[in-house]
Amino acid sequence: MVVDVAKKVVHFFVDRPRNRILDVTSARKIERCVAETRAMKRESGRGSANAEISGSPIKVAFVVQMPEVWDKQAPVYERMAADPRFEPWIILTPSYNDETKAYDNWGEIKQFFHAKYKNGRFLNAIGKSGKTINLADYGFDYVFYERPYYSYLPKKLRVMAVAGKIRTCYIPYTTPDYGAGKGIHTPDKEFYRYVYLGFHNCDSRIERLYKSMWKSCRKAHQYINLGYPILNECINTKAESHEGTVAMWTPRWSYGEGEGGSHFLEYKDDIIKLGEEVPGVKMLLRPHPFTFKYMLEEGYMTEEEIEAYKSEAARLGAVFDSNKMVNDSFKDADILISDFSSIVWQFFYQGKPVIYCLGDNNLSSDLKELVDRMYIAESFDDVRRFVKELADGNDYMKPERQKVIDKYLDRFGDSARNIIEYIVRDFTEDKL
Question: What's this model's pTM, rounded to 2 decimal places?
């Protein structure tokens, strides 16, 4: 009782005033940036009321740091690269440790993006001198961020440092899985308050974000739902032909309360045997990239146990997926075994069956709509049974999945195009 009262006092006298101050200062940054850049545009003759871009094209930066989540930005970037109205750039950024001030995976980032876009325009976030570049020096009109966790970025590239100079944009790297939060503690609020254009994939998330902000500051942000480009990519992805049935397992990495229990420790030994137990089934394993690191740090497994597990999986014919982008792996998979994760959205929108390992989660209404059309497993016996049925061709949920996909297409159509045209309209506006 005393603790609850103390929390309410802190919320009223500390959190609320701080939230209001930050909302106001971030809103003023965005408003000043938009006003100044539009004034400069009018003076230079860039842009016109009919949405045709005159002079130099719209210059857009994509700050990238993690190839595994690039698929959420890629459809928009690739459309811009093929559109003469735009000049998109990729800002190659190494992982950053705020405590040690050290960078890593630099080579991996460069290799991935240079190989993927041989004719792309690239900037290294860290110059030869070791200093972080200033994006404002390069004349960018818009900048896209890939994740809301700004602490991973060097300070000069963080959204709060850039918001007053360049119009900030965000396409969520994850889907709306959690049920709605409340008030100023809305997840990632510290990031979103500096986002000018938020291209969200969930109406309830937009409503929650606006409600978390002071009314006078809401007009500085444009949070809209124009569809989710990765889902369009999934809908249009053609399956690769292959022998047998490929079942893909994508467990979570953590065991935190409310995280959905990864089922990794409970299912890891049985899952690799499914290929032997069910004729014609091949197992493809894709644990979250943090899984083994987490298991080791938390003491759930030793290094020797991890290596022994991988060896046993290989002996049984189970393969660990090596693709950076999960959508590439989905082309080869026929069934997904997963739990609380954005991955289930992408697989679902390919029209393929999902075996959903039930956890104790507060699901968003959007995810609940999908889960109701999945095969619900409360134990590994359920997983085994559904794999056998689906491998035999008994996919009775398929018509219901298609109804959800058709509804999405009827509402949004081409979401990447929607986002691009919205930016064109925003760029050609004369006032905020």
Answer: 0.85
